[in-house]
Predict the 3D structure of the following.
Amino acid sequence: MIASKFKSPVATEGEIRWYNGNQVRFLINPEDTEGDLSLIEMTSLAGTEPPPHVHQNEDETFIIHEGEMRFFIGEKVIEAKPGMTVFAPRGVRHAFKIMSPAARFHMIMTPGDFANFFREMSTEMPQAGLIAPPTPEQFRAMAQHLERRYGVYFPQNSL
């Protein structure tokens, strides 16, 4: 039998926070896996998608549960429906567009440190109503933080 390096299993309902007009539920944090991976669930509205970007440090895997999404990964365009899984490797420019009014999906990040970006840039859930996405100026500030701290780059024509 091979022993796991992890000290204990993780079972959680997840902390729910608000990011860029989206609900984020943190299910497995990088601290739970010694940084190897993280798992979040996002419920996102159409129009709140990030512009095309490149991750230098992590791969992202998206598991679609509700809604329809169009992924742009390198030169490929992938139409994703509930039940589908989409992989975006590090070092490859990618983006997605929510084609339905909203989508719910899980995102696995390997290694897992990038989940901390969502934690840093999110707020506690509002009691009622929605919080508007950031302004272009606010997003540019977030993009600068992403580049410095997390190695995520936004090509000049995408901001």
Summary: The mean pLDDT is 85.
